Amino acid sequence: MSMKEFDKLINVNLRGVWLCQKYQIEQMLKQEPLKTNDSSHAMRGAIANAASMAGLRGYEALPVYTATKHGVVGLTRADALAFAKQHIRINAGCPGIIATPMLGELPKGDSSGDALLRDVAQGRQGTPEEVAECFVWLVSGRASYVTATTLAVNGVANVWGPMGLEKWTLYTLNKETGYVAKCVLVFSSEEAFNKAVASEDSKEVMGDMKNYCDVQPVILVGKEEASG
Q1: How far apart are CA 88 and CA 30, in angstroms?
Q2: Which active-site residues does the annotation give?
Q3: CB under 8 Å to 190, separation ≥6 — which residues?
Q4: What is the pLDDT of residue 90?
Q5: Architecture of the domain delimited by 3-153
Q6: What is the pLDDT of residues 2-27, one digit of tens each?
Q7: What pTM, to 2 d.p., does this model score?
């Protein structure tokens, strides 16, 4: 990548978001909090920044793009904390594989996108309309208690890295918040995982996770490549 390309990515993806957010906040601070029909809590305004799954994980082939999107997430969280008491909410949407001109739309039945979609549980690209619905919700009064966070619009894509076939990892899901916790329990095979989960000892482990992590003992399974 040339310095010119680097500067363009930084200017568009990070500086551009910073400038928009800076002047949006300045304007919002000048106006009084208002109640809307979809919330009983008055707000000065809400911002939804466009980040990416690259803001939640690393992509070895896209280091600068990944850095800019991590920067967007950082700006979002920092300013959201700074202006929460001024009744301004700031969040970021993190779209995954979306059928846009940037990636191209995969025809139905086309296997050329298998590698692209192998980490997506729903097995398909998202649509711009699905992303838009999430951003509309983030800035609406229905999300009045949501700020300084990211919303992954990705069809349940793996956010920790490439998924393969070498190891099984245990995940837990908090049903109320939708928060997924990646646990340190790693199994060498599906058979080993199933045996461990079926054992009496696993019930105690799951109970401990609930006590210490405030996570409901619901099991999600993901295969990931061995590391280290």
Answers
A1: 12
A2: 65
A3: 168
A4: 98
A5: 3-Layer(aba) Sandwich (3.40)
A6: 999 999 999 999 999 999 999 999 99
A7: 0.67
